[in-house]
From TrEMBL:
It comes from the Bacteria. Residues 5-297 form the Enoyl reductase (ER) domain. It comes from Actinomadura fulvescens. Pfam families: ADH_N (PF08240), ADH_zinc_N (PF00107). This is Zinc-binding dehydrogenase. The keyword rRNA processing does not apply. SUPFAM superfamilies: GroES-like, NAD(P)-binding Rossmann-fold domains. The keyword Oxidoreductase applies. Keywords: NADP, Oxidoreductase. InterPro entries: ADH-like_C (IPR013149), ADH-like_N (IPR013154), ER (IPR020843), GroES-like_sf (IPR011032), NAD(P)-bd_dom_sf (IPR036291).
């Protein structure tokens, strides 16, 4: 089958068809989405023929041998830590969900890592109704989902973006306030969903309320975070930073997000979409922070 691999740049490669384990289904991929992390932080030590990719949507070609999961012919969205950038992929049935007819497969492909990360991170903050929540990197894939899901949970959302241009559309998604960097935030916040790391994580921490919490989700800045815990006048009495990592299985969370998409209560915020022959352009645009939201690649 045909697949995209790093060699060292993105290139098409012929690789063997994947063989599913008993609890896995074989999927014919219709579209996949790209994530900043799988490009910026890819390993240089992978075996020949290794197929990257976390998020893909398509159609079940062969149902799981153990009887779990959807039947052949079902439209599904899938998650796995590899294998998405190919014509076929195998996926544990616990990490997929059936896609409603009202939802386009390319749109569904934008959900898994970014959407589930945002959903689980908002849950980790606990009760946010009526509380002020800051989302850094709000213009990115995770950020745009986080703004919507925190607002749906009743939070007063402050969206932080790198520029006015990248902040466009965030109010329509539910942001009550927009700032260009957490250093420009007035007042304090209960929670932070930080997708940037580095200096911005530190600036966000300094603005926590007592007992506030920062969810350290991403590291888009690609820089080390240095925090002065003794900084006068800018320290929460009992605020904390939690190292957030998304947790599998994804199936139930994907089904929940697909329901919101189908009902028109969630926007996948696809900022780039094109054929997989142009996937390299999408990857470059993501790294340059030129994509507002998600990049989707159609096979």
């Amino acid at each position: 089958m045909r697949a995209l691999t790093f060699d060292p740049d993105l290139t098409f490669t012929d690789v063997p068809d994947p063989v599913p384990a008993p609890s896995q289904a074989l999927i014919r991929v219709a579209a996949f989405s790209l994530n900043f992390g799988e490009i910026a932080y890819r390993s240089a030590n992978v075996p020949p023929g290794y197929v990257p990719g976390w998020d893909a949507a398509g159609v079940v070609v062969r149902a799981a041998a153990d009887g779990s999961g959807p039947a052949a012919g079902t439209r599904v969205v899938t998650f796995g830590w590899s294998g998405a950038w190919a014509e076929l992929r195998t996926v544990d049935t616990a990490d997929m969900a059936a896609v409603p007819e009202a939802v386009d497969l390319g749109t569904a492909a934008a959900l898994p890592v970014a959407g589930v990360t945002a959903l689980q991170a908002v849950r980790r903050l606990g009760e946010v109704a009526g509380r002020r929540v800051l989302v850094t990197g709000a213009s990115g894939g995770v950020g745009r989902y986080a703004v919507q899901l925190a607002a749906r949970a009743g939070a007063h959302v402050v969206a932080s973006a790198g520029s006015a241009a990248r902040a466009e559309g965030l109010r329509e998604l539910g942001a009550a306030e927009i700032v260009l960097g957490p250093e420009n935030l007035d007042g304090r916040v209960y929670g932070v969903l930080d997708n940037v790391g580095g200096r911005q994580l530190a600036e966000a921490f300094y603005r926590l309320e007592d007992d506030g919490v920062v969810m350290a989700i991403g590291r888009a800045a690609r820089e080390t975070t240095v925090i002065d815990f003794e900084l006068a006048g800018a320290r929460s009495a009992r605020g904390r930073i939690e190292n957030f990592n998304v947790a599998a299985p994804f199936g139930a969370d994907l089904a929940h997000l697909l329901g919101l998409l189908a009902a028109g209560d969630l926007d996948a915020q696809v900022g780039w979409r094109g054929p997989w022959e142009e996937a390299g352009k999408a990857a470059d645009a993501l790294l340059a922070r030129q994509v507002a939201g998600k990049a989707v690649v159609d096979l």
